[in-house]
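Predict the holo structure. Ligand: iron/sulfur cluster.
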Amino acid sequence: MRHITNPPNPYNKLSSEFVGEPPPTKLEVFEETATKKLITKAFASGWEGGWRYTVNCYRGCVHGCTYCFARQYHEYLGYGAGTDFETKIVVKPNAPQLLRAELKKCRDKMPHLDFSFATDPYIALEAEYKLTRQCLEVCSEFRVPVSIVTKSPLVTRDIDVLQRLEKVSVFFSIPFLTKERSNPFEPYTPVPDARFRAMKTVADAGIKVGIGVAPIIPGYNESDIPGLLERAKECGAERAFMSMLHIDTPSIEEYFVAKMRERLPETRVAKIINSMKRERGGTLRHRSYKERMTGKTEQWDVTQRLFDFHVRRLGFNIKEFGSDHLTVEESTAPETQPQQLTLF
Ligand code: SF4
């Protein structure tokens, strides 16, 4: 059983603590009928034009990855970044109508749309609400290139819509090879095997797929990199990117460390914390946006080289892809060489 655990919300003047055992969590679904805007323009260094445009039909994510940077967005709503993020889910029922209205006005200025970044577009509620599906239908109508990042096999339900899109890519976020290794950090996500099976189904349907080996948690999952890339290749992936764990706020740090302590032996926790601090110059959080995605040490260079080696060996990142905006970094390598991608 899960109990309510939320770090104090820095945007609330007051916070309270439970005296004794906190109550169990329960799933609560809120329908936000007053949503005015669906497409979010967000700065992304290294992204095409420096900006990306994202669509999220939900707020909060039942997958509950302890490292999730989107936890901070729940605090803007007055909720907590801990279990509130995983159990208080806000649904935007008018998302498809809003998207259509916005695209009517700005289709010409919209290079592509990314589904994800504040939530997984295929959380279980999507099976009932079908909002991501309807938004993809709108994108097909307006011929907008789309990229999806998910951890859920539910995306396979929408293969028929994905096939109608002019340009589309589906990235599966799979940073751990086994359920046992994933579980301490991704307690409620579909297991890695299920994500790989879904990747193969989507690839077999002729849709471009990729793998996001993200986040790399220093001292924990570097050794999974070769195996993850090999399995992704077997399942039809053509693109791969990697990024380092970034903990964006004190609330996320508090929750991330507390959950590690609940689920991993103390020696393992100490190894991760010490490795992370070395990469971040003494703290768990990066000091600047520039440092957010990478580490500082030789160990991180070794990790990067390990990833690059297997990307080259397996032939990732060579062919033209469904939604080309993901090829973003300048590379000194010849054009036929694979290029490292960044997504977060
Ligand atoms: S699936 Fe994605 S959005 Fe959901 S909790 Fe995990 S990292 Fe966050």
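Strands lie at 28-31, 39-43, 51-55, 58-59, 88-91, 113-115, 146-150, 168-173, 208-216, 239-244. The mean pLDDT is 91.
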